[in-house]
Amino acid sequence: MNWTPRYKRLALIVGALLVLSATAAFVLNAFQSNLVFFFSPTQIKNGEAPVNRVFRIGGLVKDGSVVRDGTSISFVVTDTLNEASVQYTGLLPDLFKEGKGVVAQGKLNEKGTMNATEVLAKHDENYMPPEAQHALDKAAAEKAAKSVKY
Fold first, then answer.
1. Residue-range domains of the chain with CATH
2. Residue 9 has pLDDT above 70, yes or no
3. Which of 41, 56, 113, 127 has the fewest CB atoms within 10 Å, counting from its CB?
4. Which residues are 61's β-sheet partners?
C-alpha cells in the first residue's frame, strides 16, 4: 500500500482519537469506582440507597441504641424522621456519642443494615457534615409539616 501524506495524517488522527478515548474511559471508570454517595436514613427507608455498593449515611446516633460486643458495635442513625441500623467492627472515634452527629461509610446488606467500614464523628460542638445537616433539616421540615396537617 502506498502511504501518501493524506493517509498518514488520517492514520495519525484516528490513532490519537483511539488513545484519547481509551484514556477518557480509564479515567471515568476510576472516577466512578471511587465515587461515594451520601444517603439519609429516610432515603434508605425509601429504597433509594444501593444494596452491596459503598455509600455514606449520616445523621444523629439515636439515644440508647449503641450496643457493644467486644470490638463489634451496632447503633442506629436517625434523621429524626426515620432510622437506619449500622454494624461496625473496630475502634470508634473518641467523639462518637449518642445524640451526636455521625457519618458512616459502608455497604447496605439485604437485611437493610449497613455494614460500616468507617465511622466519622463530628469534630466540634458546632460542626456537622453539610450532607448530614441537610438531611436533618429536611426531616425536621417534613416532621413539622406532618404535625401541622393534623
1. 37-149 (2.40.50.140)
2. yes
3. 127
4. 77
